[in-house]
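Researcher: Re-running this chain for the archive, since the previous output was lost when a drive failed. Same request as before.
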Amino acid sequence: METSKNLNSDSVAISTEKLGTKSVVTSENQLEIPLLEDLQVVDKPQKTAAQKVIRKTFKKTAVLSNLLPSGSVLAFQILSPVITHEGQCHSTISHSMTLILLGICAISCFFLCFTDSFRDERGKVRYGLATFRGLWIIDGSSPPEDVEKYKLKFIDFFHAFLSILVFCAVAAFDQNVMKCLYPSPSLDAQEILAVLPMVVGVICTFLFVVFPTTRHGIGFPLSRC
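Model: Regenerated structure tokens:
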């Protein structure tokens, strides 16, 4: 009996030693295995010249969202069918209200080109109106430190003029407005009304890309970076 007990104790000790040896080997192997993050590090593929040109083109095109009168156009497209009675304009009041709508939207396009924004020391976005002395903050808070950056420049008037032209081109494509203000155009007038807005839009888009803006007006907040 004592011999069997000794054999059992020896076998238990041997198995324990084997388990301990396996755990040590396993831990050593784990230390030698590299991290997944190290294995997944891959060099960025080299971009071709065409891909670089396309990338730069998309960056330039993104500037258009800050220049085109998107907010004014949206308001115009919503109110135009209602005011013009879907192009019918039964009375002089409808004609007058249509012209007033066009004037208000055009003025808003012009005005929004002179607005800008910045982040204060607390990270909040502040909006203001660009002047020749700097940025006039609408809510009365402190202006930004870099005054020269926000001063009114000639390019702002240029962008405002282009924005009005773009809005006029969009309004000329609106069938409700054209039926209300010009219900029976001649064939020559129809050709001009079909081509001229497109030409104006293409030219203004080209000028927007060539002469970009750095302003972030009302409705176009600053990025988080």
